[in-house]
Design goal:
The complex is a heterotrimer of chains A (332), B (256) and C (288). By secondary structure, chain A is mainly α. Helix content of chain A is 74%, strand content 0%. Classes of the chains: A mainly alpha (332), B alpha/beta (256), C mainly alpha (288). The structure holds adenosine-5'-diphosphate and magnesium ion (MG). Adenosine-5'-diphosphate binds next to helix 1 of chain B.
Amino acid sequence: MTAVSTSGPAYPAASSQLRRLALPLPWLATAALPLFLPGYEPLATQILVMIVFALSLDLLVGYAGIVTLGHAGLFGMGAYTAGILSVYGITDPLLTAGCAMLVAAATGLVFGWAMLRTKDLTLLMLTMASAFLLYEIANKATWLTGGEDGLQGVNFSSLFGTFAFDFRGITAFYYSLAVLFVVFLAVRALIASPFGWSLRGIRENSARMAAIGCPILKRRVIVYVISAALAGLAGALQAQATQFVALYSLSFELSGNILIMLILGGSGRLYGAFIGVPAFMFAQDLLAKQDPANWFLGLGIILIVLVMLAPGGILGIAERVMAAIRRRRGAA
Amino acid sequence: METATLETRGLNKSFGSVPVITDVDFVLRPGERRALIGPNGAGKTTFVNLLTGNLRPTSGRVLLDDHDITELDEARRIRQGIGRTFQITSLFPMLTVRENVFLAVSECEGIAGNLFRSALRHRPQIERTDELIRRVGLSDVANTHAQLLPYGRQRLLEIAIALALRPKILLLDEPAAGIPTADSHVVLDILATLPKDIAVLLIDHDMDLVFRFAQQITVMVQGSIFAQGSPREIAADPRVREVYLGDSKHGLAAAS
Amino acid sequence: MTTAITILFFGIAYGMILYLISVGLSVTMGLMNIVNLAHGVFAMLGGYITVTLMNHLGVPFLLALAAGCVLVAILGFVLERLLYRHLYGRSELDQVLFSIGLIFVSAALARIAWGPLAQPIELPDYLKGQVEFLGLELPTYRLALVGFGFAVIAGLWFGFDRTLFGARIRATVNNREMAQSVGIDTDRLFALAFALGTGLAALGGGLGADVLAIAPTYPLQYIIYFLIVVAVGGLGDIKAPFLAAILIGLADTACRYFLPEVGAIFIFAFVFVVLIWLPAGIMQWRRS
Ligand SMILES: Nc1ncnc2c1ncn2[C@@H]1O[C@H](COP(=O)(O)OP(=O)(O)O)[C@@H](O)[C@H]1O
Ligand SMILES: [Mg+2]
């Protein structure tokens, strides 16, 4: 189960040019979606929002090696911040999204600074406890959050004062797509930066990182705060697209689901989120409506098989297939 | 290139009630090429760990240029110029050779916290990375994952990472262990390219390597300094020959 | 005064259930060094078996409990040999995903077999109603629960301290290589410890069916509590989790009684602070 050897330049020049040309294609195809699949905009928007969320999680799980079961806590903070602001009359989408990012980042700073000195089971427990704590607070503070009924009266004004959030969800769709594109570019730049490389170093061997002089806690807190801000942004998008905030947005269930979506696609691979999220959500849309038992049974079996036989998710499988083909060609 | 003197005074370390290092007074001067030898379990690795701040002494002091650094942690001591390699290879297995070395270069040059510009666009640091890789002879595998290298080449990568931190003092814990004997001269060649004013402390069991490299030798037995002197003096010292070298002068590798 | 004793009593009963279910988790996580989120599955299954045997086949309570315990222990043994074994030494993430997968599968199967609603336990007559105890009216069932729990715990602690099996577990938790070098068959030990831990969880699940309701959501709903007990108690021990479980049972009960508007907030904040302060659990505090 060793990794693919990449002797010589990692990506030959020709293929890198191809890549650059091919990059906009999926984005353009997605942008044309409302033409081909009218009526699917709300589901598509949900998927885009969850990809933003999964990308933020990938920074932690895939790159920094921080396994968290409480990422929904940060998503929910963003969703409630945007939602509550709109209830109190601050309804501009971009302004509330910015506030949501700030609040989520601040939450991430406080929790991250406290939690990230620990590791292993303790850290995992702390991430869970932090999200449960936020969930319980939102659950009990009904005067502010609406509690179990969800936040009522969420209403955002038009984007740039021009594009209203329409009934069909066209505005929400293009808005989410644009945000996702910006987040994607930002995350891609981040993981290519020296900071991004050092995160992978910490993931691979944190003792060795300490021995080359890396301030590990600081790096981990910084990436946690960045990830929190992006998760909060995803939460705000969710609130704006659906004009509603439910307790689910803070739940353990969502924390688990987003982790599964990411792993399904392949973590630490940037494109994993783009594969795992749609696969999960389409399947859920098809199967869970009929019978939740079958959906969970199938999902559970897939998870077990994935861990036992195919670590690396869908992209991991694709990489191994490609490597096998290349080897066969090399041998022939 | 700055220089520095590393010194210990009355250094002691016990694990539980077991004393491992006892009352070690030791000096490593700028530009010195010193070997530290001694049987397995003598405490050599523990001593290096005390020097780098990886372990805290039970009592005694560690001084760098007469400043007490006993309380400084590992990261701070690295920034003050104390570099080391590990006896047990400690790399970033799933990263490429280039990434491994770049991590150290970027920490050393203070750009590792940079969030915005691509690592590959940090030209001077990338060039330095590639230069270090060339120096240890790993250019042909620069884009290979560290875990796929044969053990001997992993040892060389370990040295490149240590050099990347621009040490004034370099502590090498059995750098040649695992490198086929025929290739151990590679390590010597690399050491020969180091600036003359870097102080190097080399731990090794290969007496051939030790005697070719060292100007000074310290012999450690059961946690104490047993003898010190030039290679010639150590080789001639009857006590050393008795407890340590056995009968033949160069038979140490077999003895340990 | 009466309130205090009532809370004490209900808290201890709750803590007892938490302990019985979690102690096996503490031992196996410390012994095999794995993160297992799916431990609640075995408690749920124990609960289903007990309830089904009693409600539908009229099997006496204690016999039904024993049957659940034994059947689940066997299942635990088989699962350890078939699946869990492959997780030792794997990444924490793999272990998390695997155990979530196991939770989903078992919850789905439970839903198919028993439906989505909670299965109420039909207590035998002698456990219904109240008894007078120290001048208080206490539910007979909880009193029996506490008594039975203490008996099991006494046996468990005695066995852990005095039997060869217990000594082997302690030795292996301490230092696996050392244990192997003195000839302990760790493979067998792991399987047996896993069987014992899951059996105890089943016992806790059955015994506590009236406290933690048996439904397909059980493993997900209560996992946080089981993990809290283990994390606060510290891994690989059987006594510290008892202290942690009772503490959490009492704190949660008291908080729900006096400050219902705060609900479970207190318990999560409490756990958060304890773990920041003592990352290795309360055992760390005793050691330092
Ligand atoms: N972390 C530790 N805990 C307990 N004993 C240790 C530890 N590290 C080393 N030792 C003991 O200290 C002695 C010296 O070990 P070491 O420094 O590795 O020797 P050397 O490098 O000379 O072979 C050995 O007896 C070893 O067992
Ligand atoms: Mg050594």
